[in-house]
Amino acid sequence: MPAASSFVTVHEAAKILGVSPDTVKRYAKKGLIKSARNAENHRLFRREELERLADKSKNQAKWRVLKRPAKAGKTGLTAIELFSGCGGMALGFQNAGIESKLLVELDKRACATLRENWPKKEIHEGDVSLVDFKSYHKKIDIVAGGFPCQAFSYAGKSRGFEDTRGTLFFEFARCLQEVRPKIAVGENVRGLFKHDGGRTLETMLNTLREIGYIPEVRVMRAQFLDVPQKRERLIILAVRQDLVGKVPHLFPKERDYTVSLGAALKDVPKSEGTTYSDKKRAIMDQVPEGGYWRSLPDEIQREYMGASYFLGGGKTGMARRLSREEPCLTLTCSPCQKQTERCHPLETRPLTTREYARVQTFPDDWKFSGKVTATYKQIGNAVPVNLAYHLGTCLIAMLDPSERTQEMEEPVKEEVEESQLALSL
C-alpha cells in the first residue's frame, strides 16, 4: 500500500479536479475514478491519479485491442480453457503470448464461432465430463475456465473435492488433476463472494488446496484495464504447490484512466442489431444521453414502470441511454432487456452486435456465428479480451521473471474481504 501522504480526501480531490465534492463522489460511484476507505471509513483518492486526470492532454485513452509486441518474441506457453464461450479469454491470452491447445465448450453457436476464427485449433464441442485430459499430463502450462457457480452439497465432511461432484467446478478440478498445469485460472462473477453465504467460494478454494494448488483471489475491474465497460470479474489464481516460492501470484495493477464508450464506437463497422417497437422508441426518444427512466415526464414514468414505479431502489438500468463520456454499463445477453437497457448514446436504438463486440474489445475482424440473438448472447457472456490480455501478461510473468513489470502486483495478504479486494489500489 502506498504512503498515506499520496492519498487525499474528497474535498482535496475536488480542488485538484476543479469540480464539486459531490461530483467527485459521483465519479467514484460510477467507477470513473478509484477510491479506497481508511480505518474511519472516509473515502480517499490517490493524488497522482487525480493530477493526471486533471491534465486533459494526458487523459486521451483510445480504444484498441492490446497485443504483445512482435519484437518481444514468443513465450512458448500453452493453455487449455474449459467453458471457453466465443473466445474472449482465449483471444486475450493469445494476444498476450499464450497459445490455447484445447478449447472446451458446450454451446454449438459459440463452438461455430471458435472454428470460424480458429479453424486449426482443437475445439471440443460437448459435455466437458466426457473429455479425457490425461494425454496433456505435464504438457500444459495453464488451465483456465469460467465455470458456473452452482451451490455445493455439504453432506460430506471434507468440504473439498468430493463435495463438488455433479458441478462444473468438479470438472475443472478433475482437469487440473489430470493435466497438472503450473497455474490454474478460475473466472466468475463478483457475486461468487456471497453465493450460498460464501460457502461456494470456500469449497472451491478448499478443493484447490486439496488437489495441490495454492489459490489467491482478486476482483478485476475491466474499466481500469483498457476495457470501455464497467464490468467486474472475480479471478482465482492458483499455483501448483511444488512451485510455491518460485512462482508468485501476480495480478495486473489497475490503470489510472478509463476508455469511454464514445472512443469504442468511433468508426465502428455497421452491423445487425435488434430494434425497438414504435411505442418503446417513442419513450426512449425522450431520454437524454446518460439518462434513464427518471429523466422522463412523471406520467410516462408511471406508464413505463408500472408497479415498479412504487418500489424502492434506483433501477437505473431501466430506460437507460448510455453516455459517450463514460465506459459502458455491463453488457448482458441482450441490449434491450427492460431491467438492463443499453440504448445508443445518440441514436434511439439498442447497441448493434458490432458495437457490443467493441465494448468487449473484440477486434473488428472477429466473426460471430449464428443469428443476432445468439451473437448478443455470446458477446455478452464473454470475458473482455483486453482484461484477459492483462491477466495473460501476468501469467507469463509469473513463470518468467524477465517479463515482470511495475504494472503487476502480488496480492496484499490482509485483503481478504470482498470490499477490500474490490477497492484495493
Rounded to the nearest angstrom, the radius of gyration is: 22 Å
Please tally the helical runs, counting DSSP H or I stretches of 4 or more residues: 14
What's the CATH topology label of the largest domain? Rossmann fold
Order of helices and strands: EHHEEHEHEHEEHEHEEEHHHEEHHHEH
Distance between the termini: 7 Å
Number of strands: 14
Helix content: 25-40%
- How many domains comprise the coordinates? 3
Structure description:
The protein is of the alpha/beta class and 425 residues long. It has 3 domains: 4-58, Multidrug-efflux Transporter Regulator, Chain: A, Domain 2 (Orthogonal Bundle), CATH 1.10.1660; 70-257 and 384-423, 3-Layer(aba) Sandwich (Rossmann fold), CATH 3.40.50; 261-381, DNA Methylase, Chain A, domain 2. The protein is 30% helix and 15% strand. The chain has 14 helices and 14 strands. The chain has helices at 10-17, 21-30, 47-54, 88-96, 108-117, 168-179, 199-210, 261-265, 278-284, 298-305, 353-359, 372-381, 385-399, 418-423; strands at 7-8, 36-37, 43-46, 77-82, 98-105, 123-125, 142-145, 183-189, 213-221, 232-240, 251-252, 336-337, 340-341, 408-409. Strands 6-5-4-7-8-10-9 form a 7-stranded mixed beta sheet, sandwiched between helices. It is globular and about 65 Å long. Residues 414-425 have low confidence and may be disordered.
